[in-house]
Write a structure and sequence with these properties.
The chain is mainly β. It has 2 domains: 36 residues, no CATH class; 96 residues, Immunoglobulin-like. It is built from 2 helices and 11 strands. A hairpin with a 3-residue loop joins strand 6 and strand 7. It comes from Nonomuraea rosea.
Length: 148
Amino acid sequence: MAFHVEMKIMSVRKTTIGASIAAVLSAAALGTAATASASGQIVETPAIVCGPGYQVERQASFSGGVAYLLYNAGKQNACAVAFKTKNVGTRTLVWSAVDVKGAGVVKNEEITPLHTVPVYHAAPAGSWVKFSGGTKSADSGGGYEQIG
């Protein structure tokens, strides 16, 4: 007795464009900026990296990147993150820091292809805050300014 077995293989195609559009729309609903690249990948922004509710307060350029200070009024929290503009995609040293006057500094330094992991610091509205970011050979930032 002979048996005939027929197998049909289904092709599954992943649609990243649709997922990217959904993520962009979701980010827009949260009040953050997001864009999709031509490849359908979500392009990270400071607001996306710090999380929902964070909005850019200030930014400062340095040779090779931009440091950002963001604030979440609901959480009474500041966030600092540095994005590279040179050597993007190549793992190089970059750092970011946030300093709340009288409460100390939180800093992150790492070797990364795009941006630092965000650093957070409690900062009640009206706190005096400064931030900075940079690479091994350059830095940015400014003096204390009130936040919130």
